[in-house]
Amino acid sequence: MRTIVITGGTDGMGAALARHYLRGGDRVAVIGRSRTKFEALIATVSGEDPSAAARAEFIAADLSLVGDARRVVDRLSAGYERIDALALAASFIRQRRHATAEGHEASWALFFLSKYLFVTGLAPLLRAAERPVIVNTAVPGARPDAIDFADPEMTSGFTFKRSNAQQRRANELLGILATGDNPGLSYVTWGPARLVRSGFAGEVGTGMRVTAAVLGTLLGQPSESAVRPIIHLIDAPEPGRAAYRGAAKLALPAGDHDEKDALRLAAAVEAGLSSNG
Fold it and tell me: How many domains does the chain have?
């Protein structure tokens, strides 16, 4: 029995992955904000397999909060001997800069700081697995200069476009750190090939919300279809870094300073986490 950990596991693609692996007999830890949604998910799967509930664990957390991310890492570390697959799928879109109660920029905290804490904090459990894999739903392909190392939380000059590009680049560099620590690890940055028909979570303008709803309905694929490439990547992992859009493998972005930038990013993150407690 494998152990699969899924952030954002009560909605959209995360929930589709949770249903798939519970139906397949695996143990699944679901991290999300809504126990009600988790219980509905379990009810659906338990109707097909009564053992699913015993193999599922829900951990309530808001992963835009560093304290919650650390608490989840501690709980997983205490409760599991290994993690075979870590799917990082939590999402909440913000068009404007928002500071959390901890003082971090919310999008940076959710889309990178929490992932950094999961990847680094759960590294021993991933090393304990025979074929460990991380699938990070951070669309690959950001430009190499997307990170402002002097101000990664974008206290000035914040735009949605800059924030998104920085998160994507940071998650690519996180793969360098993760595979350097564990050469047997498969680390994949992944984005869907086309729109996914799922609930839209976020604080955005009416225009973006309406556009997403209309295009998602007309052109979007169901979450169960969208996650099929992720399932393949988890079930047949290849050690090292990789990038995908849907089922199509992409060339990894490569720059002359990638290794140095990865270390620089880690130093900036650790300094920021220390200063904010």
Answer: 1
